[in-house]
Amino acid sequence: MCETCGCGDPELMPVEVHESLLSENDRAAGHNREHFAGQEVLAVNLMGSPGSGKTAVLEATAAALDGSGRLSALSGDLATDHDADRLQKAGIPSLSITTGSACHLDAQLVHRALHDLEWKESDLLFIENVGNLVCPAIYDLGQAVNVVALAVTEGEDKPLKYPVMFRKADLVLITKVDLLPHLPQVDMKAIEDALSHTMPESAFIPVSAVTGEGIDRWLEWLEELRRHHGE
Question: Superfamily assignment of 12-229 in CATH?
Answer without folding.
Answer: P-loop containing nucleotide triphosphate hydrolases (3.40.50.300)
